[in-house]
Amino acid sequence: MSQKPKVIVSVPLPPDLRERLAAACDLVDVPMGQSPADAVPADVRAQVSGMVCTMKTRIDQALLDALPALKVSSNFAVGFDNVDVAAATSRGVLICNTPGVLDGAVADVTIGLMLCLARNLVAGDAFVRSGAWAQGPFPLTRDIRGKTLGLLGMGRIGRVVARTARAFDMPVIYHNRREDPEAGGLATFVERDELFKSADVLSIHIPLSAQTRHSVGKRELSLMKPTAYLINTARGPVVDEAALVDALRAGTIAGAGLDVMEQEPLPATHPLCGLPNVVLQAHVGSATHETRRAMIDLAVANLLDALGGRQPAAMVNP
Ligand code: DGY
């Protein structure tokens, strides 16, 4: 009988990494997003001590019951709102994630959305392709230089966005649960309402939790300038999307750039898809070859470290 630990793999692995993992563990493949509770027979589940998966795998009481020998689950993501961390912790299950390696990629999409909104770049592309240019020039857009960027959340990604925005001569303000000593010189702390009132571009960089769900809603949107843009590259449900659609229709704010939505994939029939003042992306913040490789390297290293009794580089249990 194999002495190797049994590990569920519910994420696409590059061949070299799969080989490395297979040398140390018995791999049990589960299609991405399918619950191992449904996909793996009970006698195999009973022996599983590790798992590497995406945000699509819900790690809740029911799954923890179905994997009684689980020691570690390694998320191929920095976010971990798919995990009941308290339930995992009370059973001694380590939960790992991939912070740090995707900050630049997510910040780049944030800045890209900001430029698309202010300079109307997506509509500009359609304007040229359709031949409309022959009828006259493209309508004037707005500068971002000198405009105030407001960051809701000043963690690793927020800091990279702040640094990048300085290159656009944008004053940066932020609100965080507490003032960030590392933000000094980069951004100015303001109260939460002040952030919404003063920002010309308001970008969200907080995790999704019971406390942050719909924390950007009708009240916050009504504080914003009618010329301001909202950007969300964090998690869709942080924003009350129905309130956002109302604000975009009413012109309470000028536009929104969204890489994340409450429902993903976003159906083409969703009201957001019919609004001209919205730029949408398919949750691609970290989706570059280089960044995804760094993320999967870290996720697998976390898993192997935890199984080997070493401290993983990134774990989220308190
Ligand atoms: C992350 O790493 O959390 C990205 O949003 C991918 O889900």
From TrEMBL:
Pfam families: 2-Hacid_dh, 2-Hacid_dh_C. One of its GO terms (cellular component) is cytosol. Residues 111-285 form the D-isomer specific 2-hydroxyacid dehydrogenase NAD-binding domain. One of its GO terms (molecular function) is NAD binding. Keywords: NAD, Oxidoreductase. PROSITE patterns: D_2_HYDROXYACID_DH_3 (PS00671). Gene3D superfamilies: NAD(P)-binding Rossmann-like Domain. Residues 8-317 form the D-isomer specific 2-hydroxyacid dehydrogenase catalytic domain. The keyword Oxidoreductase applies. Belongs to the D-isomer specific 2-hydroxyacid dehydrogenase family. This is D-glycerate dehydrogenase.
